[in-house]
Amino acid sequence: MMLGTPRLHLREVDSTNVRAQRLAMSGAPHGTLVTAEAQSAGHGRQGRTWVTPPGRALACSLVLREPPRLLPMVAALAVADVADHFDAAGRAASIKWPNDVLLDGRKVAGILAEGRPQEGWVVLGIGVNVAVEEDAFPPELREIATSLGCAPPQVGDALALLLERLAHWLAATPAEAMDAYRARDALAGREISWNDGRGTALGVADDGRLRVRPSDDDASAEVLLDAGEVHIGSGRAD
Question: Is 0.90 surpassed by the pTM of this model?
């Protein structure tokens, strides 16, 4: 079944991910899509709030049956393709591991996969700042968030392309997806920090883990990060 069918579109919802999870638990088929004009309780990774101004941001969640292991990275590739196509300033999208899509170092989209993999399903939530005005972001986000700078009518166009590109990357081989991901890697060669230390990012392994050379070890040492929050630089200011 194609992505986006059936579709439930709501004027306002607490969270498209929450609504899609309810549908998934009720047996909704692969590709079921939930979209909303606005969210009152959207959320992202690490429990962060995701702001969705009415009619100006894409808020959608997909039910995916038997999702691929690299789903967060595949989703980031699809969003990056959308950003490249629609960004009014012509900025090239990059990806900060594992799935933050950036334009000039500022986050333009949120991606969150939640569900019950043991039962064979995941809900993939994606929010994209398509037509959000810069001064509409909360003050604490204005230096780290950005928008595609489009007009509100293009939110629907962005959704159509997102579904197309997501279908493309879901059908790609892991090797094809990882090659494309590495071409957009925002961390390779940069100093980073995480909860347990700091070091230099060396790129992404084939299984999706982040390769890092810790600062306190010799030049040949390498560790693999499989989860958690990574920050550019030695501090947490990004």
Answer: yes
